[in-house]
Amino acid sequence: MTNIPPPAEELRVLDLELRSLDARRTQLLHRRAWLVGVLQAATAPAPGPVPASPPPRPVRAPEATPPNVQSVLLTLGGILLTVAAIAFTLVSWGHLGIGGRSAVLAAVTLTALGVPTLLLRRKLRSTAETVAALGLALTALDAYALHAVALPQADALGYTAAASAVLAALWTVYGLVFPELRLPLPLAAATAQLPLFLWARAADAGEHATVTALLVTAAFDVAVALRAGEAGVRVIATVSACAAGLWGALAAGYLSWSAADLTDAVRAGALLILAAAIALAAARLIAPPAQATGAAFAGGLLVAAAAGGVLREALPEAWAVPGYLACAVALLAVVRTALPRPVPRGIAGAALLIHALAALWTLPALVSALAGPVNWAGKAWSGAPSNAATAVFSAELPVHHPAMASLVLAVIAGVLLAGARFLPVAEPALSPSVARAGALGLSWAAVFLLPPALQLPYAAGVSAHVAVVAVLLAVATRAGSRPLALTSLGLAVASSVSVALLALATTSATLGTLAALTALFLAATVFAARRPETVAGAAPTAVCAAVSYAAALACVSGAALGLRTEHTGLLTLVVPALAALAAARLGRHPLTPPVEITGALAGGLAIVLTAGHPATLALALALGGVIAAGTALRTERRPVGYAAGALFLLATWVRLAAWDVGTPEAYTLPVTLPALVIGVLRRRRLPETSSWTAYGPGLAATLLPSLVAAWGDAHWLRPLLLGTAALLITLMGARYRLQAPLALGGTVLALDALHELAPYIVQVVDALPRWLPPALAGLLLLAVGATYEQRLRDARRVRDVLGRMH
How far apart are CA 465 and CA 372, in angstroms? Predict the structure, then answer.
């Protein structure tokens, strides 16, 4: 298919081709002249060297093309003529009589409008465009002159409306008579936007009539945009249709929203229906799919706004949002029709937007129902409220019509579930599994709002929420798709936290709810683990929640029995003990890590609860060490033995602190003795193990703190015992050729001896003359310098001896 460009574009292309041909012709002429010179030199009697070919002269491109120059000149000429005409009309008008004025303007206008005929015959289109523009401007000046002279008492707005209508009609006829001119028809289309709106304002017809004028103008623009053949007219009509239609639709929407009674709502609804009809007609006739979908989307919104506004005035206030939602649901029926695909797609998009806004309206009620029970954490067991609404809803977050919010959520859930199955415009992203998961979430929200919305008794509300958790866990354990299982499991966890907080109002409700939640999550864990295709994360999440609620139940049980906080912590240790037994029973099952981790966290909670009583804290740490030691008996959990040792050591230290024991050796020896035993066993199994690795930590744990204590001790018993122990360790290191005992023992022995001799050294120094210490230091330096090489050999020998030790 051959695309013929517009005449102006074709003329521009031809001008470019002609300029290229001129440049090429100039180059060829230069080449010809050079060739003629070469031939003449070859026929001359005295041959000379062949002259070199001169480089072609660069052709300088013109800075302005002829069409551009012509356009600039014509535009400037037309502007100057128009300015002159305006100046004549406004300034020099009074120098002529009425007849002269009329004659001058009529003659100039007719001349300006008639000259383009001759110019077009001579193919001077650009000049004709300029002169025609002058003529059109003169017609507008004629209208102004007519009002100023003949009709000075006429209303300005009314006269402008009539004049704009006449001018639009005249310019349209003129453009149709001379189709070669591009300006008259777009100018007529732009002027046609004024008559109806200005007439409505001039007649003071009211808001509804003004909006009607805007919408009728938009309908006219749509018709012009769809039927016009010229691109400029289509652009102006399309932009005007969008502007007038949007302005009219917003004004009609405001009138519908601010309607004081049913009559006003019906009148505003009629305007919205008119705007919707324009948009839907445009969507039906527009060819590009994207634009058709956008027009249908706007039409669907306007229809729903019209019907919803009428229902809002006809029904009670609580039914306002459900009324709009009902209109959106009715719109979805259009997608089953045989209309072109963009139309139902746009209408369905508008309906879904209304569904989303309705769901957003329910958000305050849902958030209050879910997070409102948090307030009971600060007033636990203060007494049951009168009903579920009082227990859930708070004054901080105002909630309006929770029952209607529940209804709205249920309707949206049904639409979502049915839409993925029946609607042909459903996108691939809305797969059945995703739709079912979304419908489940909306249904949960609707059911979760029912107890407080219906103001059920407090006990019934708590029981209903526990039942919701049970249903969600059943869905999670039996779901066949991952989105549905994960959605139901997440909702079950959120609901369980909310109902656990809600149950804090009374002791019996708290104990019963926590016990029920523990049992439900344990059952969900069992059922999920037994399934052949377990959804990833379902069973681990359920078992973590079960252990967590079991720990909470233990804490609450202790408080209910009147136990002190530290004794409640001891009771809570039952949970990590049971978790350790369950993990041992599971073995290498995938559920073992979450059970152990959650049990360890429960054990940490128990220890924290006992922190206020040192004796009970020591017992709790020891029991925790027993649980950890039992876990370390399993081959795959041997590293837990380090945690068991740390817990036992902490238990010992806490017990010593409770007994007011201040001797550091009482704290360090329980570390040193097991560490040395472990070091001996390790060197027996791995003889190549270094003595620093085997014995260094154990020896340092006691020797270093004891050395620090000995330096600050004024008595003789601790330094004596420390020196004796360091001597024995040094001798053992020398006997068995071990670096760590020899170095640590010798260092501690030397420092301990220095501590004991320090008073005497101080006395001797005080008794010596002032000059003697510097003299002794100088002699020592001379002796060391004289025997430097021997000292180096001795140091290397000591290093080698130590290096041969382990």
Answer: 14
